[in-house]
Amino acid sequence: MARSGDAPEVLTVGGEPVEFTWRGRRFRIHSVLSRWREAGGWWNRASDGNYRPDDLAKSFWAVEAAPEGMLITFHVERDELSGQWQVRKAISKSAAEDE
């Protein structure tokens, strides 16, 4: 079983996440609720506007994903420099509540 600190396996199509593993379970993304990007080293560009590799930029997705019987909202994050992924659970609700 994957520990919460382990990097998840993320399947992408066109650079967008479509499936991922989290705590040893496979989740299929059903919808993307929002997507945003954060630039970490803004202070490096403050004077000249040039990108530097230490900018620590990350892309984020808030997604609804499910194994079976439950729909869960996750934040899926990719470090733009290293390409490493993180998955963070946000909210869960029973699939029956949606019916």
Task: Outline the structure in words.
This protein is mainly beta and 99 residues long. The chain has one domain (10-98). 4% of the residues lie in helices and 55% in strands. It contains one helix and six strands; from the N terminus they run βββαβββ. The chain has one helix at 42-45; strands at residues 10-13, 16-22, 25-38, 58-66, 70-79, 85-94. The protein has a six-stranded antiparallel beta sheet with strand order 1-2-3-4-5-6, with no helix packed on it. Residues 94-99 have low confidence and may be disordered.
Cα distance spanning the termini:
31 Å
Q: Largest sheet, order of strands side by side?
A: 1-2-3-4-5-6
Summed over residues and divided by their number, the pLDDT gives a mean of 75
Q: How would you sum up the global shape? A: elongated
Largest beta sheet, briefly?
Answer: 6 strands, antiparallel
Oligomer: single chain
Kindly state the number of beta strands. Answer: 6
Secondary-structure-derived class: mainly beta
* Uncertain parts: 94-99
| % residues in beta strands | over 45%
- Following the backbone from N to C, one meets helices and strands in this order, namely EEEHEEE
C-alpha-based Rg, rounded: 16 Å
Number of structural units classed as domains: 1
The number of helical elements comes to 1
Share in helix:
under 10%
